[in-house]
Amino acid sequence: MVGFCCEVLTQLVFLNVAGHTEWLHDALLPSPILVRKQLTGEPLSLPRRKPLASGTLMAAVASLVHFSLCRHSSLFHYHHLRALALSVAIPFSSSAASASSPFSTLSSSSLRQKSKRLPAAAAAAAALLEVGGVKIAKEDVVREGDPTNNVPDTIFSKLGQQLHRRDNHPLGILKNAIFDYFDGNYSGKFTKFDDLSPIVSVKENFDDVLVPADHVSRSYNDTYYIDAHTVLRCHTSAHQANLLQKGHNHFLVTGDVYRRDSIDSTHYPVFHQMEGVRVFSPDEWLASGMDATSYAAMDLKKALEGLARHLFGAVEMRWVDTYFPFTNPSFELEIYFQEKWMEVLGCGVTEQEILKRSGRMDNVAWAFGLGLERLAMVLFDIPDIRLFWSTDERFTSQFSEGQLGVKFKPFSKFPPCYKDISFWISDIFTENNLCEVVRGIAGDLVEEVQLIDNFTNKKGMTSHCYRIAYRSTERSLTDEEINHLQWSVREAVQNKLNVVLR
Ligand code: FA5
Ligand code: MG
């Protein structure tokens, strides 16, 4: 059993966004009844989320590490941690690596550096991505057969796309609107970074922000590892410590982040975050008569409420106390959208240890990390997170630079097609691994993977039945196509997940 996340509603802020239909499927959000109770102002001391649904501790068996996680958008909540053996493999990997690549021997540490180190001729010879000033060959990131690598082709294909840097894309439009808010309110004090490489060290992603050695977010089940020391960042907090060490006191970092996760309309394995950090010096809080932490927490909430008003005008939102390893106290902001509360950001007062390590013994700071897709879904009425990756002109043409409030008009309503798959699981089975297999076959044609039945028989064998919803955001799928996908999924599930189909 993994840990609890004791989150308590602390504050409510007015007005409702009406007239939306439900689309958020996060099973861990509170029931509408609880939400309504909270809105009526009843004192609340409930854990906001249930303990994770199937957080069984899996032994690290032979060369496998597996952790069963529930559908949750926040890797960093859990106080509770499970033992890990990081240098072991997951049961499936990615596409074949080509030994002929001139860069296949490029070490991950050199990938992480800002490199101009590749010979120009060699760089020209291969199809290289340039990400954050680093040239990357596929073989550097995707290595089938390497037990320390779990990056699939589908994830590699997203590297370097940097949707947040396209001014006509909803994410770029939103990023620019947030920049406007900070520029306007802090007279340009915040330095902006939106081209830092998503390939970071385990140290940057976890150690530098005090994520404990045995924290669930470090597992191969949750994070994409390039090798045992290098990951695709799973949050923009990976850059906090470096930037503080470089002397920045006010900064915003926007970037693509990567997580192995479940499949539904608000979760995607690649999404975008914006990190904000503000450091205060003693004169700033001394004058207020408040202690440093209270001052920073007050300023943080004020800044983010102001941002929400800047983006949404009047919107119903609330603060929820939570836990992150890198902040204390920690909060999440939720926005009421389409009849549900949706978590849009995490934040808090930076742990003193992080500041101390950057040579700031006498300062206090706040930090936040917001999910750009989640905010953009509310702002533009975008019902499915897959749409952000659409290149269909009927989607892309609806958005243009600086147009924040435009509501997306769905151009199609294709019916979903549901297919069930049942199997006896083994004790190394995890839902994230299943989702990765399904995405590997069906790509963005899969809309949702949902556990619909779960039982254990007298012999102690556990059966799961998952319902896979296939639906394209762009076209009708034929029966033949779906049947073919489903057969391929069944085959891959059987071959890669060590389960017995029923
Ligand atoms: C973090 O990632 C923390 N680094 C945020 C933070 C920064 C806290 C600085 C304190 C100080 P979390 O895992 O909750 O926290 O993710 C932050 C936001 O990213 C979420 O609120 C949500 O809006 C978004 N998000 C998380 N997972 C997904 C996903 N799979 N798909 C889309 N958006 C997601
Ligand atoms: Mg969260």
Radius of gyration: 22 Å
The geometry reads as: globular
**Average pLDDT value?**
80
> Could you name the ranges where pLDDT drops below 50 across 5 or more consecutive residues?
1-72, 79-107, 113-125
Number of helices: 15
Q: What is the structural class?
A: alpha+beta
Tally of DSSP β-strands: 17
Heteromolecules bound? adenosine-5'-[phenylalaninyl-phosphate], magnesium ion
Instruction: Give me the CATH fold name of the domain at 129-389.
Output: BirA Bifunctional Protein, domain 2
Largest sheet descriptor: 8 strands, mixed
Q: Helix proportion of residues, in percent?
A: 25-40%
Protein architecture, described:
- It is a single chain.
- The protein has 502 residues and is an alpha+beta fold.
- Among the domains are: 129-389, BirA Bifunctional Protein, domain 2, CATH 3.30.930; 417-501, Alpha-Beta Plaits (2-Layer Sandwich), CATH 3.30.70.380.
- The protein has 15 helices and 17 strands.
- The protein has helices at residues 32-39, 108-112, 120-125, 138-141, 153-156, 170-185, 202-205, 240-245, 282-286, 292-312, 352-357, 372-380, 393-396, 431-442, 479-496, and strands at residues 9-13, 129-131, 134-136, 191-193, 199-201, 225-227, 230-232, 250-258, 270-280, 317-324, 327-337, 340-350, 364-371, 417-424, 446-456, 462-470, 500-501.
- The strands form four sheets. The protein has an eight-stranded mixed sheet.
- A hairpin with a 2-residue loop joins strand 6 (225-227) and strand 7 (230-232).
- Helix 6 crosses helix 12 (372-380).
- The longest helix has 21 residues, at 292-312.
- The chain is globular and about 70 Å long.
- Residues 1-72, 79-107 and 113-125 have low confidence and may be disordered.
